[in-house]
Structures are given as structure tokens and as C-alpha cells.
Design a protein that fits this description.
By secondary structure, this protein is α/β, with parallel strands linked by helices.
């Protein structure tokens, strides 16, 4: 999210961040009221600080142990006497349930039927408004969602005195969502003056706001970018607008993300994706409260089978992909590509996500952060808190089945800097060091905390810390001090953010060899006493 000999102790730090983002959708028909119920008529600026709680992400090794679980008695008794109806969309994150059910419809070869004696019917409802309407009416028992969008839909349900709970985390988006843009757009700052398509009040919108808040754009420039957004009913239409050359960029998801790039060839690129924003977009399944209350055994067995489905896909990927492809009317190659853009989340990830292992539940972090953002945009009528809109008992009940299972993540290791490392987001901040020393002054800790928070949410990135000095003193002294200060930055972040490993850092001392202003004036020397920090997406 080394620096220099400092006469005044200030260092200008340029943060160049490769971040990832998302797409998904909600076709909102009107602006909602504030949480108090009073319509504001205006919206508030979304700021970087609104996303601070995203630092409480998963992945800390000390919280990587299994929970003790809950008993069957704590789950309760009761089974559904009819097929369980589950609303999904065309997203590969639903694959475990489809595979375990051997398709969308109830059938004798379904493992839900064989192992639990239950019938499951998956229905594809792409339109989020139609999905929510069916859920509210009772035509659907369980529905697809992302946690950030669930915060908005939970408020809608609360207005109608309806209740529901998130019961399982399906996946983390890991490249499956993103922003496609013209190749000439190299950074988030370059979106100024451009037309961007996305779905209003959706995860696409949420993540675009996040990127803008993290950027070096001024509040006025961010407002201007928002005014230029072309809102579409869903993410596929956003991609279509880009393919038809009606917009300069679009927030969408796979397979539309890749097809949009292919359609425009060399003039298009993926600007950012959740390959970098590894812990920002989480898909979840939400169950009606009456299902949970009256048929808890059905919910328990559904979750149990879902985790088994992940194992089946791991052990037999090709046959599994064929089942999903046939069910979603895709080809197996497309399904395989979609799966490569996400991380299916088995028991251990779920236990960590819902806070069953002792960490702060990242589910609550995402939900409550989204609630604040939608409230600022004037969308929320009814206040809702994350803890009231999830039920982790069905995950916790399976603790004994997965003893010792741990969250597995691909290690990220910094490599030598190359010309291909193109930063796409820029900020300028100031850090203070004790003059002539690598000791970071306490007043700058919060700035480094921001950087640690950024790296935590964007887990597939490496941090390059480049120290620069003015020409005062010898070059050898400057090189040594700048390197030591770079290492101090690394050590501070890894100490205070245990999930960020030292291997994710490149520390470079440049001394006075890379000035950005003449050293003949104090103003110029102060500009040269800086630290360049680049957050780069790893591609391997």
C-alpha cells in the first residue's frame, strides 16, 4: 500500500501501487435513504480512510489453526421435505456444488442424494434484481452474492423485516474480476477524463471507488471520474460497451474480461484485476432465515457437500469441468480459465474468514466497510451489522472433519526489478527519519501502516523500496544510509503485519544518483530526499 539523509527529516514518498479489482453487478433502480431513514439528496466523497478496516484481512499465521466446532445439538434438527432451491449465476465459484450434485437438477447420481438423501436444484438467475426478488418471495432458498453487495441487500431485506444469513464463503476472486481499458491507459490516474462502464451500486462500483480513493487523484478529479461513469445493468453489458468502443474502460468479470481484451486486440489491456486484490472480493451463499430455523440439517448437509465438492474437483479436475461446463452452457476450456481466476475456499479458509480461528472475521470487515461506502453514496435505508447477517455454525460444525487443515496460499517472492514493472497507481506522502539515521520517527508510523494495509489486501504484490538522497555528503555514505532506511521500512511493515513476509520486498539504496530536481537549492534538495515505493503485481 532508505531512504535519504534528511536535513529536515522529511521524505517525499511516491507510492506506485499495482492493485487489483473486481466486477460483478446490481441494477439498482433508485438512490436509497441514509441509515437513519432520512433521504439526504446528496452523497459524500468516498475517501481512502473509509477502506482502512480492510487491513484486518485473513492470512496471519497465528490464526491458522482449526476451530473446535459446534455440536449437532447447536445446529438443531429439521430437514426440508422438498428440493432445496439454490440461485446461482454464470460464475465458476459455484462449481463445487454443481459437481457434487452432478448437474443443476435433482438426479439419482447426485452425491447430495446418495450421501444425505436430499434433492438440490440449482437455478441460474443472472439478473441480481430478479435473484433478490425470487429470494424475498421464497421461490429461492439460497442465493449467490458477494459480501460487499450482501451488505446492501441485507439492508433491503431489513427494511421488509426479512432475515437471512451468509452461511458459506465460496471463493476469493483471484483475477476473475477486473478493469479492462485502452492500452494507452496505464494507471488509475489516467482514468481522469475517460468514460468508464460499470454497474451502479455493485461490487464493480465498490471496487472502482476503492481504486479511486487509493489513487493520487485530487477529490475534484475523483468526482469528475465518477461523473463520467456509464452505468450498465450488469457486468456483461459493461464489457459489451467496451467491445463496441463506446467507453474507454469497463469493470467486468470473466469470461467477459478476457473476451473484451481479445475483441479489441492490441489497443486493449487488463488495467487491474483481483490477481492483485487477493483479499477484497469474496463470494458467498446466503440462506433464508426460515430455512435455517426450520431445516438446519438441510443447510448443514448442503455446506458439508459443498466442501466435499471442492475435494472432488481437486482430485478429478477434467470430469468436474465437463459437468460445470454442461450445466452453465460453457465449454470446458472456458470453465478451466474461469477457475484459474479464483480460489475455491475449503473449510480452513471459511473458518478463518468467519473468525472461527480467533482472528477478526474478515467477513465482518468486508461487510461493514461496504455498508459505510453505500451509506456515503446515499444507498442505505436501514442500518445493518455484519454479525447479525451471518451464521457460521454450519461451517464450525465440520471442524472435526478437517483437523489440522490450514489455509494454503501461493508464496509471493520479490525478484529483481525490470523495465516491465509498470506501476498503475500513484500517491505522494511524507515520512520522517531521525536526521543522519535509519530510525523512523513515530509520527510516520501511521503512513507505513497504510502501506502495510495496502499490501495485505493486495496479496499478490511485491514492494520495492528505493531510497534517494540529495547530494550533501559523499555518495558512498548516501548509498549506505538510503539502503538502511529501505530496510527499516521493510522491517517496520513485517513486524506490524505478520502476514506480510520479508520475501515480498525489494530494498534498493540509490543515494544521490537519481535526482528529480536540481541540488542547487534547498527546495530541490528536499525533493531529492525521498523514498520511491512501488507495489508491483507478480505475474508468476
Amino acid at each position: 500500500m532508505t531512504l535519504t539523509p534528511l536535513a529536515k527529516g522529511f521524505i517525499t514518498v511516491v507510492i506506485l501501487a499495482v492493485l487489483g479489482f473486481v466486477a460483478w453487478f446490481w441494477a439498482g433502480s433508485s438512490i436509497k435513504n441514509w441509515a437513519t431513514g432520512g433521504r439526504t439528496g446528496t452523497t459524500e466523497e468516498v475517501k481512502k480512510e473509509d477502506f482502512e478496516s480492510l487491513k484486518n484481512t485473513t492470512g496471519d499465521a497465528k490464526y491458522n489453526e482449526g476451530s473446535t466446532g459446534v455440536t449437532a445439538a447447536q445446529i438443531g434438527t429439521g430437514k426440508l421435505a422438498r428440493p432445496l432451491i439454490v440461485a446461482i449465476n454464470t460464475w465458476a465459484g459455484h462449481a463445487p456444488g454443481i459437481v457434487y450434485n452432478n448437474g443443476l437438477d435433482p438426479n439419482p447420481n447426485s452425491f447430495y442424494k446418495k450421501n444425505f438423501g436430499m434433492d438440490v436444484k440449482f437455478v441460474v438467475i443472472e439478473d441480481p434484481a430478479a435473484k433478490l426478488a425470487a429470494f424475498r418471495k421464497g421461490d429461492v432458498d439460497i442465493m449467490w452474492n458477494t459480501v460487499d453487495n450482501w451488505a446492501r441487500e441485507a439492508s433491503i431485506l431489513a427494511e421488509q423485516n426479512q432475515a437471512a444469513k451468509s452461511i458459506i464463503m465460496q471463493d476469493w476472486s483471484r483475477g476473475g474480476d477486473g478493469i479492462v481499458s485502452l492500452a494507452s491507459i496505464k494507471s488509475i490516474e489516467d482514468l481522469k477524463g475517460k468514460r468508464v462502464a460499470c454497474t451502479q451500486f455493485s461490487p464493480s462500483h465498490f471496487l472502482l471507488l476503492y481504486l479511486l480513493a487509493q489513487s493520487g487523484l485530487s477529490p475534484e478529479d475523483r468526482t469528475q471520474v465518477e461523473k463520467n461513469i456509464i452505468f450498465t445493468q450488469d457486468a456483461s453489458l459493461a464489457a459489451a460497451a467496451f467491445r463496441s468502443k463506446n467507453v474507454d474502460a469497463a469493470v467486468t468479470w470473466e469470461p467477459d474480461l478476457s473476451s473484451a481484451v481479445e475483441a479489441r486486440g492490441d489497443e486493449a489491456r487488463v488495467l487491474v484485476s483481483t490477481a492483485a486484490a487477493t483479499n477484497v472480493i469474496a463470494d458467498t451463499l446466503v440462506a433464508r432465515q426460515d430455512l435455517i430455523d426450520k431445516s438446519p440439517e438441510t443447510v448443514r448437509d448442503f455446506v458439508n457437500g459443498w466442501f466435499d465438492g471442492i475435494g472432488m474437483m481437486r482430485d478429478n479436475p477434467n470430469p468436474s469441468n465437463e459437468i460445470v461446463a454442461k450445466s452453465l452452457k460453457l465449454d470446458a476450456e472456458t470453465v478451466s480459465g474461469m477457475l484459474s481466476g479464483l480460489k475455491l475456499t475449503p473449510y480452513a479458509d471459511n473458518a478463518q474468514f468467519y473468525g472461527l480461528t480467533g482472528a477478526k472475521p474478515h467477513y465482518e470487515t468486508l461487510f461493514d466497510t461496504a455498508f459505510v461506502i453505500w451509506r456515503k453514496k446515499g444507498l442505505i435505508n436501514k442500518t445493518v451489522a455484519a454479525k447479525d447477517w451471518s451464521d457460521s455454525r454450519f461451517v464450525s460444525n465440520l471442524a472435526a472433519k478437517y483437523p489440522g487443515q490450514k489455509v494454503e496460499e501461493k508464496a509471493v517472492v520479490a525478484k529483481a526489478p525490470t523495465a516491465a514493472d509498470v506501476p498503475i497507481l500513484q500517491q505522494q506522502i511524507q515520512i520522517q527519519f531521525t536526521p543522519g539515521s535509519e530510525e523512523i520517527m513515530a509520527g510516520s508510523y501511521f503512513l507505513l501502516d497504510k502501506l502495510g494495509e495496502l499490501m495485505t489486501s493486495f496479496g499478490s504484490t511485491v514492494l520495492r523500496v528505493e531510497g534517494n538522497t540529495d547530494s550533501t555528503g559523499s555518495q558512498n555514505t548516501n548509498l549506505t544510509l538510503s539502503e538502511k532506511r529501505a530496510i527499516s521500512v521493510r522491517n517496520y511493515i513485517t513486524k506490524n503485519f505478520p502476514n506480510i513476509k520479508p520475501e515480498r520486498f525489494q530494498t534498493v539504496g540509490r543515494g544521490s544518483g537519481n535526482p528529480v530536481a536540481p541540488n542547487t537549492t534547498e527546495a530541490g534538495r528536499q525533493m531529492n530526499r525521498r523514498t520511491d515505493i512501488k507495489v508491483i503485481l507478480t505475474t508468476e
